[in-house]
Amino acid sequence: MSEDKATKERLLACAKQEFLEKGYMKASLRSICKKADVTTGALYFFFENKEDLLSSLVEDTLNGLMEQISLHFRMEIDTNAQTAMEGDASEDIKAAKEILHYLYQHYDIILILLTKSQGSAYENITDRFVEIFENHYNMLMEQICEKAGIPVPNRYFQHWMAHMQIDAFVHLLTYVEDEKEAMGNMQQIIYFLIAGWAGYCRLDRKNVP
Question: What is the reported pLDDT for 141?
Answer without folding.
Answer: 79
